[in-house]
Design goal:
353 residues; 7% strand; 5-stranded mixed β-sheet; alpha+beta
């Protein structure tokens, strides 16, 4: 018997030789109780961590050792086939249950990790099992797309395989949450975040990726994850077209809206008069947005809006007359531009502010 097969405890072969002897003598097949016993032994072997290949090898070696003299080969081989098949069925059933339990434990851990639930000390202990050391700083990247993704899908597997092939065991956690692709990596490994963004962008056919700042401790992952989600939300509201957004580059926007009431007052004061225009405030607000996004270049802004430069200039003049602020005047520009950013953040004039 090979060394690997000798390592298999004899308890998993309990009663096997007797089954072969009886099959040889009577020619009968295994009955229901005997099959249940073989399945139970297979389940126990799987739970104890033995490999199926070695277990099958041990059965075959035991078959050679216990082969009855003068036995009818057909009867013995039929019993061998039944016994090993039932044993393997029990083994596979235990393996499937273990996989489901592992998946459930992983999903529970991910929910607790990203939502900040559970005791932080206990969370750190569980994190080691999934390759994270929460005492270190971590950053989170989130990829959004029109289609929702799950971990079993082809897109998720493609991105995960790319990460594993490139970075191996760098203590990276890849998962999905609420239909988005999520990558958690040590905060000093920005190359992981950059590579994930590249792979996710390609795999999701142009889905936007946001990267939170690195933060330390068990709560750091939650903080970085929330920053990434907020960046995606901000990009949607501000119509930002960058494929990769970094929360560190967008800090000015939370600052501007930290005092929401003050920002709402500015929007009403600086832009409220635009509602008096024919067609409402939206066309003139879009004009200001294009003008400021173009670096106050009238020709470029006109192209963005599919207008002539003359038509754009007329609109800017109309804004000046209604608000009293001239978009072309550096003294007025900052107030108007800040108010335009506030309007986009507060979704004005679609919503009352």
């Amino acid at each position: 018997m090979a060394a690997r097969e000798r390592d298999i405890p004899s308890e998993y072969l309990e009663g096997y030789a007797d089954l072969l002897a009886e099959a040889s003598a009577t020619g009968r097949r295994l009955n229901r109780d005997e099959l249940i016993t073989r399945r139970a032994l297979g389940e126990r072997a799987a739970e104890d961590g033995h490999g199926l290949r070695a277990l099958v090898g041990a059965h075959l070696a035991a078959t050679r050792d216990a082969w009855p003299g003068g036995a009818a080969a057909d009867s013995v081989l039929a019993a061998v086939q039944q016994a090993i098949d039932a044993f393997a069925e029990g083994y596979e059933q235990a393996q499937r249950l273990a996989v489901r339990q592992e998946e459930a434990a992983r999903r529970e851990f991910i929910d607790d990790l990203l939502y900040g639930r559970s005791d932080l000390g206990r969370l750190s202990e569980r994190a080691e099992r999934f390759g994270l050391r929460l005492s270190r700083a971590h950053a989170v990247a989130v990829a959004d797309a029109r289609t929702e993704y799950d971990e079993a899908g082809a897109v998720s597997r493609r991105v995960e395989q790319a990460l594993l092939s490139r970075f191996g065991d760098r203590r990276i956690l890849f998962t999905t949450k609420d239909g988005r692709l999520v990558c958690v990596a040590p905060g000093d490994q920005d190359d992981v975040m950059t590579y994930f963004a590249k792979q996710a962008y390609a795999a999701t056919d142009g889905g936007r990726v946001a990267i939170g700042r690195p933060h330390s401790g068990p709560g750091g992952v939650v903080h970085s994850y929330e920053e990434a989600l907020n960046a995606l939300d901000l990009a949607e509201r501000m119509n930002l077209d960058e494929p990769v957004l970094r929360a560190a580059d967008l800090l000015v926007f939370p600052v501007l809206t930290r005092d929401r009431q003050a920002m709402a007052d500015l929007v009403r004061s600086a832009l409220g008069p635009l509602e008096q225009a024919r067609g409402g405030a939206t066309p003139l607000l879009d004009t200001l947005t294009a003008y400021f996004d173009s670096g106050c270049n009238a020709a470029q802004a006109a192209r963005r809006l599919s207008l002539s430069v003359r038509a754009l200039t007329y609109r800017l003049d109309r804004i000046h007359r209604l608000t009293g602020s001239n978009p072309s005047d550096p003294m007025h520009r900052y107030t108007l531009q800040t108010a335009v950013i506030g309007a986009r953040l507060l979704d004005w004039p679609n919503r009352e502010v």
